[in-house]
Amino acid sequence: MAKLGIHDLAVRYGKLTAISDLSFTVAEGERLFISGPNGAGKSSLLGAISGAVPAAHGRIEMDGDILSGLGPERIARRGLSMVPEGRRIFGGLTVQENLMVGTGIRRDRAAVADDLETAFTAFPILRTRAQAPAGALSGGQQQMLAIARALMTNPKVMLVDEPSLGLAPKVVDEVYDRLCSLQALRGLTLVIVEQSSTRAARVGGRMILMRGGRIVADGDAAGFAAADLLSEAYFGDPA
Amino acid sequence: MITQHRIRRRMATTTPILLALLLLAFVALTLALGDRAAARMASETLIRVTLVVGFWIFAGNSGVISFGHAAFACVGAYVSAWTTLNPAMKATLLPGLPPALAEAHWHVLPAALTAGLVAAALALVTGAAILRLSGIAASIATFAFLAMVNTIWANWTPVTGGTSSVVGLARYVTPWVALGWAIAAILAASLYAASASGLALRATREDEVAASASGIDQYRHRLLAYTLSAFFCGVGGALAGHFIGVINPDGFYLSLTFLMLAMLVVGGIGSLSGAVIGVLAVSLAVEALVRLEKGFTLGTATFALPPGSQEIIIAVAMILVLVFRPAGLMAGREIMLPARWVTGRGTSQN
Amino acid sequence: MSLQLLFDALSLGGIYAIAALGIALIFGVMKLVNFAHGQFIACAVFALILPSTDAVAALGLGLLPTPLLILAILGFGAGLAVAAEALVFRPLRNASPVALMVGSFALGVALQNFLLVLYGGRPKAISLWAGLGAPVRIGPAEVPLLQLIVIAAVIAILLALGLMLKRSRLGLEMRAAAADFGMAQLLGVRANRVISGAFALSGALAAVVALVMVAQTGVADVRMGGQIMLIAFIATVVGGMGSLPGAVAAGLAIGAASALLQAGLPDAARPFRDAFLYALVIVVLLFRPQGLFAAADAKPRV
Prior knowledge:
The complex is a heterotrimer.
Chain A: E1 4-13, E2 16-26, E3 31-35, H1 42-50, E4 57-62, E5 65-66, H2 72-77, E6 80-83, H3 95-101, H4 109-122, H5 124-128, H6 139-151, E7 157-161, H7 169-186, E8 189-193, H8 197-203, E9 206-211, E10 214-220, H9 221-227, H10 229-235
Parallel strand pairs in A: 3-8, 3-9, 6-7, 7-8
Antiparallel strand pairs in A: 1-2, 1-4, 4-5, 9-10
Helix pairs in contact in A: 3-6, 6-7, 8-9
Chain B: H1 4-32, H2 36-62, H3 69-84, H4 87-93, H5 99-103, H6 108-130, H7 135-155, H8 157-160, E1 166-167, H9 175-194, H10 196-206, H11 208-213, H12 218-244, E2 246-247, H13 254-267, H14 272-294, E3 296-298, E4 301-303, H15 309-324, H16 339-342
Antiparallel strand pairs in B: 1-2, 3-4
Helix pairs in contact in B: 1-2, 1-9, 2-9, 2-12, 2-13, 2-14, 3-6, 3-7, 3-12, 6-12, 9-12, 10-12, 13-14, 14-15
Chain C: H1 3-30, H2 37-46, H3 66-89, H4 97-119, E1 124-125, E2 135-138, E3 141-144, H5 145-167, H6 169-179, H7 181-186, H8 191-217, E4 219-220, H9 224-238, H10 244-264, H11 273-287
Antiparallel strand pairs in C: 1-4, 2-3
Helix pairs in contact in C: 1-5, 1-6, 1-8, 1-9, 1-10, 2-3, 2-4, 2-8, 2-9, 3-8, 5-6, 6-8, 9-10, 10-11
Organism (chain A): Gemmobacter caeni
Keywords (chain A): Amino-acid transport, ATP-binding, Nucleotide-binding, Transport
InterPro entries (chain A): AAA+_ATPase, ABC_transporter-like_ATP-bd, ABC_transporter-like_CS, BCAA_Transport_ATP-bd_LivF, P-loop_NTPase
């Protein structure tokens, strides 16, 4: 069974349609990149899966349970976590407090302590700055904090929206490096919005290309550059 | 060829005319009842139209809620009292008035205009400070302004009579006088709303950031609307004083603020028609509730609502409107003639 | 500054700070300027006595032994605020801050008139803790015992609240929700729990103000919450909307300014003290529209 299933999803903002007739599934442990031009509906898709944006139509399932309509608080409890666009760090809280916000849904205190240790090991800078206000971190450090914070809810599926936005290429390498090793360590299913298809190809995984709220291509990220599908998605006729 | 834009503008000009006719019909209807209580209600309602339409000029166009407009009514009422009361009476009631005011014995019309102008001047000065604040903080500052005026008026006894009432104001406000001022307020409000300043201010109401990016000086337009708005609240206060003949500072404090807000919310803050319809709807409801508080007989038994239940019911109605019909009864629409009536042809153009 | 003046300023400012915290807590988590807060205070005062329109108040909850009485009134305030949230503000959860504010104003009017219906409009004498007026000698000054108790209570409440916000789960969630409600929800924080928690705290703080006011004045009056609520509003604006330390600092500052004006103004001008105070605040805001102690992340996001 697929870990995550999207069936006939539609998202509308008033009269504006952001997503229509969207269907795909993600297997357990898979790494799925979602790419496409601005306005393709990538962020709306993540918003709908996480419950932050209501779906106008369609069904979202995780492990066969229906998520759509539950709202973000309960979806987070089901084991789906979000690293949002722009990171949305709680600037006035300390780094460690940021990490602890999402642990309210967990009962096992010892496991929380273990995960905190894992996060500090994966991102040593967070341990060094644990008691500093999170707003004082650099952009790259805030991105790492956002990833670590999402992991502290002990998710099975993690959605990451544009982790490379506004970061230097070297820092992006580092972010993806950690993200991949944490995925392997935790057996996570990852859905990542990434504008740069060359970046996605380098990291490796499956890739879905969106345009105008629909899927125009689906395949191995490495194959996309060769197949010339990208320029079609950006400049060609809508599918 | 008549463009869509010009049709809209012609339709918009019908709004104040229709609202004026509506109020005229309201006066004619209540006077036809021949009931003194009905005539009293008509004058009271039309004074409230002046106040609330004045209030709307600022709140409706800027989207900022002011709690301070009852203070302008307070100032207006006292200015009119100072300038029209019999000098002999002022010597005993208000011994602290400066000589020029103490001897004044004006006609009521210049007094009402002066009441409006003084309120407007006060708005210009205080608004210059208050309106620099962002929306919610500005609302709180207007509340502080209301309390400040009330504190001064309640304690400045030689000039205002303090908390005791000032009596003997000429009771000249008939339904027709009140109708005249209500129509004047409606005309001014629709002229302002259609002016460049009104349009710019409503643009800031929709999206503060975008409007300031497009170079609209929000502060200046807010201040202009605030000042004009205070003029009609000042006049409305003067009318209220001359309607009852007795004024005191608490008559222009929280209850009036609440009533004006409730009318605007119920009718819908988004349109001038909303302000007028809100006054009519709430005034009729208040009238009915006041009669219920006085008691009514059903068969042999007499029922009466306890005093205070009127405010509770209006407040609950206001909350229900906010929850279930947040844009109010009129939902931002204006009362206007349909397009085919104003084009002078059988069909509308596209 | 004389010692007496210092105690006046501290006890007045402390109460203003507690009232301001009650406003700022709710504004922080749900951007609601709660115009019903003054009526929460008035309701907590009237909860001490039995409903009747007689001039002399018969104590109801006020008859309880002091520790129980304090708990009961704090619980009453918290319960009232939580109920108000569930009935009025939850249906308005997605409304604009302006609609929320207007709704709270309507709720305040409804509560005030509800008290009028139940208790009548005349102020009533309440004799509660009469012994607290006794003066205590500290160095050269004589200070009423009540003032010392108020100052001690304010310090204890501020410490407890600070500890609660800093150390407890609910406190962490409230601070996260105040910073970014949507993000907190994405991390599984329950909106209802956080908002109810904020209202409960705010209502309990209103009850503290009510108890202090009753002890100070010895009367119950339907209008008694209005003036202190206004000062609390001003403190939250001066402190920077939603900033809790700012609200406390501004509350203390306004208390100090108020005590100084009371002592420094000539007799003829004294009734206008509050008018001077409000004018002072408008002047302060003219120079610092974002408040004196504005929080770094309080600026609107573009």
